[in-house]
Amino acid sequence: MRFLLCLLAALSSAPASAERLTLDRLHADPALSGPGVRNLRVSPDGARVTFLRGRPDNQYQLDLWEYNMKDKTTRKLVDSKVLVPNETLSAEEQARRERARTASFQGIINYSWSPDGKQLLVPIASDLYLVDVAKPEAARKVATGSVADPKISPKGRYLSFVRNQNLFVIDLASGAEKQLTQDGAGTVFNGEAEFVAQEEMDQRTGYYWAPDDSAIAYKRYDEAPVPVVKRFEIFADRTTVVEQRYPAAGDPNVLVDLMIVSPTTGAQRKVELGANKDVYLVRADWSENSKQLLYQIQSRDQKRLDLISVDAATLAQRTMLTETSKTWVALHNDLRFLKGRNAFIWASERTGRNHLYLYDLDGKLLHPISQGNWGFDDVLAVDEKAGRVYVSSNRDAVIDKQTYALAIDGSTADKPLRITKADGWHESSFAKNGQVFVDTFSDPSTPAQVSIRRPDGSMVEWLEKNEVNAAHPYGKYLADHLKTEYGTLKANDGQTLYYSLIKPAGFKANARYPVYLSTYGGPGAQHVKRSWGDMFDQYMAQQGYVVFRLDNRGSTRRERAFTDVIYGNLGQHEVEDQVTGIDWLGRQSFVDKRRIGVYGWSYGGFMALRLLSAASDKIAAGVSGAPVTDWALYDTHYTERYLGGTPKGDPAAYKNSGVFAHLDGLKSPLLLMHGMADDNVLFSNTTRLIDDLVNRNVQFELMTYPGAKHGISARAGKRHVQYTIDAFFRKHLAAPKQ
To answer: Is 114 a catalytic residue?
Structure first.
């Protein structure tokens, strides 16, 4: 009897048996990664940390929450369903969310603080609400009618927004609404960023407040010169013909003006941008004293960037500095003005690595703030009182993201102080003054953990510890969670390539397994990270695949020698590097080199096609999602940046960089997927490929998604995409008969 009691006790204390992931569970609620948080912000007074969180029964329905620093409590501030029970979005708002990659979400997508930290501005369903943090239940609607890009002015006197292509302000003291621009209609837009600015230049706004509330600088653009592309948006129950002004490579861009308007009088002044109208207005900022407006102009070929200062009183201009490159000058958001030093901080890749520099307001270089054989990602905060600037970087490991502190005086330029400690991926959101920050940390075995920390990295409090225990959504799957391994290979020019690998469930060293190779491969993205990963990768590994990723040359967060290799010939070097990875896999004793499959979406879809065309003898099957097939069909700013010109000016570069010149080599089974209302990588990329493959009598499989945009944002669509990929590889990568 004693033995039986001990056995029963042991069984009762043992963890519940693990379960394998299913595709249905990947797309069900609650989210497997736990109660995630988005859009973390520290209030201006430092009293609260606010964030957006999905619901347990719908991870895509976002509500606004707060953590109170004083009483250490967390509560829901604004329930999105109470504000708007049934959300309906305008076509313009849907397009904006597609550009911002937030189309999957509903409810509260964004918000902002008032300067005094007492109110929050909450846009939802194209209306605008002010929320008093002391009485959040009394949220009041302050503007309606397709309101976009709302802001509270820096001094808190005004509320501004864009409606119907015009810029408006509301005086918060009187409640009076004023329309500041009058000509927004048709092809003319005020206070907005144009299509390629939103999509390719990281411009989320088209207007900029002076710090003293005295003026607004805004972009006015006319898209009349941009050719109209007629495209079908095919839905389940209808087909719509959309006339979209889409600036494909070599086409005219919008005509841009930079204007200054008084929010009080509405008086307008125009800033002259020069005789050459074929340029990009990529940024605008105000000095701390509101006396200077600084804007950035990038040449059409993107090899030159000028930072120009405008006297706000006289409109007199002078060029502060100029960046040039033999390939392209990268854009950034790291211009910071210092109040007490009559200076500004500027980022540049002029040495081949991204570093920070201090300039005076006459444009004279004072000294580098950072330097050496490393580079930073972004400026996170400036604490001028402490003499520090905080940045994110992969200085200690390319696959990591850490937070570092640099002395503004340059004394730590080549030896920044690392603030975050745990190896892995840290996203840090600082208070404006740098006195506290919120750290979101993950690694391949740890879903995102959110903590509040002091500037030295020490803990203040957990915001979301997110421990994976029996109560966690991932708890019953944890025992079968598979380890991610990392390593390096050498490109043919000797540069280092980073890869990640997950060995399959039940791995046996003497067995040979098929490979699921996931690729993106394009500039501006990093696919190999030491972070909480894609659950579909875990699923595929549990199905018996070796899961492999490799960041080829051209990928982001590396030195310019690594990224610039792709200039003038997209696809060639990226494919070479992926094939290097495939060849390495083929030499591993646990890999069946006859059963390697590749998958990619967007640039990754382009890569999948190019890989199948270059190496069908090494790749058994491939899935290409929403691929660019002809770069002449893609937009001006992105394509001309990397190909170094236009289709007319350099037709050979466009031909060699596309898919069609290489299709003779495509012999392996192909699954082609695309959303039928894609306004980014137009569906015509796929229809042209279909026609070419039919004319070649190349058999392939096709899955198109009615009404879907570039990212397939609907939950049912995402699930179906993964079911289809899973089934395709099961069919083509099954163990061969002996």
So the answer is: no
Q: Are 647 and 250 in contact (CB under 8 A)?
A: yes
Q: Which residues contact 354 (CB under 8 A, 6 or more apart)?
A: 330, 332, 347, 348, 375, 376, 377
Q: Measured between alpha carbons, how far is 515 from 526 in angstroms, rounded to an integer?
A: 20
Q: How confident is the model at residue 441 (pLDDT cuts 50, 70, 90)?
A: very high
Instruction: Check whether 6 has a pLDDT greater than 50.
Output: no
Best CA proximity match to 453, nearest among 462, 442, 443, 444 = 462
Q: What residues does 490 pair with on adjacent strands?
A: 496
Mean of the per-residue pLDDT values of the chain: 93
pLDDT: which is higher, 415 or 1:
415
What's the predicted TM-score (pTM) here? 0.93
CA distance 486 to 517: 14
Q: Reduced to 3 states, what is the DSSP secondary structure of residue 228? A: strand
710 is catalytic: yes
DSSP code of 634?
S
**Candidate list 500, 602, 613, 668, residue with the active-site label:** 602
From 678, 679, 713, 720, active-site residue = 678
In this model, does residue 4 exceed pLDDT 60? no
User: What pLDDT is attached to residue 547?
Assistant: 98
Split at pLDDT 50, 70, 90, the class of 477 is very high
Distance CA 581, CA 578 (A): 5
Please give the pLDDT value at position 10.
36
**Whether the Cβ atoms of residue 622 and residue 668 lie closer than 8 Å to each other:** yes
Query: Is 75:50 a contact under the CB 8 Å cutoff?
Result: no
* Structure token digits, residue 213: 């509330």
Q: Which residues of 633-671 are buried (b: 16+ CB within 10 A; e: fewer)?
A: bbbbbbbbbbbbbbbeebeebbebbbbeebbeebebbbb
| Neighbouring C-alpha atoms within 13 Å toward the C-beta of 327 | 19
Instruction: Look at residue 434 and tell me whether its pLDDT is greater than 90.
Output: no
Nearest to 280 by CA among 242, 254, 313, 259: 254
- Going by CATH, does the domain composed of 29-146 fall within 2.40.128.660? yes
Q: Which CATH class is domain 482-732?
A: alpha beta
Greatest mean pLDDT range, 115-129, 137-151, 221-235, 617-631: 617-631
Structure tokens at 690: 């279909």
CA–chain centroid gap for 71, Å, is: 34
674 is catalytic: no
Q: Are 128 and 141 in contact (CB under 8 A)?
A: yes
Query: Can you tell me the distance from the alpha carbon of 590 to that of 162, in angstroms, rounded to the nearest whole number?
Result: 58
- CA–CA dist 517, 586 (Å, integer): 12
| CB atoms inside a 10 Å sphere around CB 569 | 16
Give the per-residue pLDDT at 37: 87
- Of 332, 662, 710, 732, the catalytic one is 710
Q: How far apart are the first and last CA of the chain?
A: 53
Per the model's pLDDT, the better-predicted residue between 15 and 255 turns out to be 255
Q: Where are the domains of the chain?
A: 29-146, 482-732
Measured CA to CA, the distance from residue 314 to residue 79 in angstroms comes to 48
- Supply the pLDDT for residue 36: 81
> Residue by residue, what is the 3-state secondary structure of 419-448?
CCCCCCEEEEEECCCCCCEEEEEEECCEEE
Q: Give CA separation, 337 vs 239, 312, 357, in Å.
A: 50, 16, 12
CA distance linking residue 608 with residue 571, whole number of Å: 10
Are 164 and 143 a contacting pair, CB within 8 Å?
Answer: no
Q: How would residue 590 be classed by pLDDT, with cut points 50, 70 and 90? A: very high
Return the CA Rg of the chain.
Answer: 26
| Residue owning tokens 């810029």 | 167
Q: For helices 715-732 and 535-542, give the axis angle rounded to 10 degrees.
A: 30
